[in-house]
Amino acid sequence: MKHGKKYTDGAKLIDRTNLYETNEALDLVIKTAKAKFDETVEVHVRLGVDSRHADQQVRGAVVLPNGTGKDVRVAVFAKGDLAKAAEEAGADIVGDADLVQKIQGGWMEFDVAVASPDMMGFVGRLGKVLGPRGLMPSPKAGTVTPNVAQAVKEAKAGKIEYRLDKTNIIHCPIGKVSFGTDKLLENFNTLLDAIIKAKPEAAKGQYIKSCAIASTMGPGIRINPNKVGSNAE
Fold first, then answer.
1. Angle between the N-to-C axes of helices 181-197 and 22-32, in degrees from 0 to 180, rounded to the nearest 10
2. CA–CA separation, 165 vs 46, rounded Å?
3. What predicted TM-score, i.e. pTM, was given to this entire model?
4. Buried b (16+ CB within 10 A) or exposed e, 116-155
5. Residuewise pLDDT in 10s, the chain (233 residues)
6. Which of 43, 74, 112, 174 has its CB 3.0 to 4.6 Å from that of 187, i.e. a possible disulfide?
């Protein structure tokens, strides 16, 4: 694969054989982000589990202390007083059966979907639409809840969901390059602490197999998997 000059120049700053300390890696991410826009910093963590087994699933959600730097659009499935509470909390769109129909018609202008439990009979019809996009409300992610107002506030504040893909890797954004090392480090530690805490009892051997970070257009930088999370600092 051929890369552009900015990527190639950035890659020269990285020792591919080295496992960096987290703060060093974040410094390098910022130095190698050469795009004209404010790039997102993403974390990729490979775990020593097998996602094919139900007792080795790793999934949850966490509020990043410094947010993600993204203006999150929240859609809420609720009615009555819960719908009113969601609107007051800042939801971008609130509806029940009408919102389901709108999405079935192709409308997808939102980043997070929240639903009250009584609405899941309607929302379940959207499984084939929302599921592949990672937008299906879920109790484990805190997006199926009777407290829809709190869920909206958390989503707006920078709540992200982490979950294994088919290759046992978790991919998550932890902010923008413009955040600087300190804020990115705080977000990184918050995410890794949550992943470590979510370790399944059935997991054997080394849990954090590998960890890497990269900006949207920049090269990947490997972090020492034995020194991640706030306890490692």
1. 130
2. 10
3. 0.83
4. beebeebbeebeeebeeeebbbbeebbbbbeebbebbbbb
5. 666 666 676 677 788 889 999 999 999 999 998 889 999 999 999 999 998 999 999 989 999 999 999 999 999 999 999 999 999 999 999 999 999 999 999 999 999 999 999 999 999 999 999 999 989 999 988 999 999 999 999 999 989 999 999 999 999 999 999 999 999 999 999 999 999 999 999 988 999 999 999 999 989 999 999 999 887 65
6. 174
